[in-house]
Amino acid sequence: MLNPDTPDDQERLDHLHRYLVLDTPPEAEFDRITRFVKPLLRVPVVIISLVAAQRAWLKSTVGTNIHEMDRDSNCCGEAIKQYGVFVVEDLLATPRFQDDPMVKYEGARSYAGAPLTTPDGYNIGVLAVYDHRPRSFTPEEQAFLQDLAAIVIDELELRLAMLQAKEAQVRSEYLAHHDALTGLPNRLMLLDRAKQALLHAQRHGTPVGMLVLDLDAFKTVNDSLGHAVGDELLKAVGKRLCTVLRSEDTVARFGGDEFVILLPELRDALDAARVAQGLQDALAHPFEVDGFTLDMRCSVGISLYPTDGQDAEALLLAADTAMYQAKAAGKRQYRFYAQDMTRAAQAKLHLRGQLSRAVDTGEFELHYQPLVDLATGAIIGMEALVRWREANGRLISPATFIPLAEETGLIVPLGAWVLREACTQAVRWQVAGHPDLVVAVNVSVRQWEEATFVPLVQQILLETGLSPSRLVLEITESVLLSEPVEARRQAEQLASLGVRVALDDYGTGYSNLSQLQHLPIAQLKLDRTFVHPLPGGVRDQALVQSALTLGQALDAAVVAEGIETDTQLQVLRSLACPVGQGYFLGRPVPASEFALQHLQP
């Protein structure tokens, strides 16, 4: 047996640790053995001890509550050095073991221990007995202990074999569903997840995206630097791709330099384009692999369920086709399976990038449309409407950029700029001799929901010097009435400042009259869909009249939007509509033109 005091004891410890039993609870199988030994050898204490580097761990005990001992002070530490059973007939007569806890605390006088010997010949522990009286142990009793010690080892070997079999099964299952090189899901796992994602999409009507990503010029890396470097690069690429994706997305490797990404529960095609762009941006940063700095680009093909395929295989084929189209277009490109979707998504992504820069660089301007007293024809105010003028002078339609600003959250800083600029311009006109003009400003859902919105309004009024009674904030019905309690609180706060709140697009389907009567609304803006049919029939005019009557009951002025003809104007006048707005009365124009057209003496 190897001397445990030499460096070779490490080999013994390695064999002990491979059984994985030191940090586990006591073994039930061992308890049966210790209980069996006690009556047959007529001893009060039986232990199964596993001897580590410094401690002896008792994995089963009968007759004692001790569960660990110092290796050098107890008998088991000596027993593992023996080839056969180690016997001490009188422990008190042996100074070497005076500090054995069994001697000190349990009154043990004699000891017999059979080493637990592994199939490789390493003693990792002891099956031992203690008696309270000095005694010798017969050859038959010692042989009995050795036989049982062999059974303990058999139990450990069986346990180890079962653990290894389980690990092998887990490993086999893992390899069946994962790429051996990168550890990413493989084709089998991706198809399984795609099946689940498509079932969910069928129930909930959400798109699913499938992206095929191929590395550009990867073959050059393999050919010039070798496959070992290529393999490390593929691992690094896989890790970096994972950092871009959501937890519910799946990135898989199908072999070679081809990766496939499954995107469940998308909102629209733009989501897939955004991911494709993000993947390309992530790979644009150089990779450091085995001392080489490698620049890597990729081509991405995108397909969408349900437009491009009804199952995973069809989506894969479509995305693969799109990927080859992307490669043909040049490096670092992505393409949708349908070309028109590629152009639309790219244009929208480009526009979003431009929008972010435009907020920072001040490319926006305000145009003003007059609000007219229909009885007198006098200008009583104006609505401020934001416009985006590109560097080339081209105006981008608000219908294009406002929804995008809402989606990205840029509407909050943009809306704050609009409010401040409109109030500033209104004060300029007041100073120029038009003190009674009101200015109306649209407020988005995102702005209204900001906790800082009311303080922002108050701050801007103080900064610009505009009288609060000259400011009208236009909110859509859906914003005011979806959260009526919060809307009422916020509207009351604004009213307490003296600011008027207008209900924009009135009559488009959200109104609840019982809620309206509790909101401090100063204005109802009648949607253009009510004005457009005029003069129309009796029903058309009756609808407008009902809105006017409601406005009077709520003490709110009614503003008719979208007046485009003299006939519409005359009908509204006959119905005693107080205020109107529309192209017939004046188009939105920059501040300088507004002053020339409407504010001349």
UniProtKB/TrEMBL annotation:
InterPro entries: Cyclic-di-GMP_PDE-like (IPR050706), EAL_dom (IPR001633), EAL_sf (IPR035919), GAF (IPR003018), GAF-like_dom_sf (IPR029016), GGDEF_dom (IPR000160), Nucleotide_cyclase (IPR029787), Rev_trsase/Diguanyl_cyclase (IPR043128)
Pfam families listed in its UniProt record: EAL (PF00563), GAF (PF01590), GGDEF (PF00990)
Taxonomic superkingdom: Bacteria
GGDEF domain span: 206-339
Domain EAL: 348-601
Entry protein name: EAL domain-containing protein
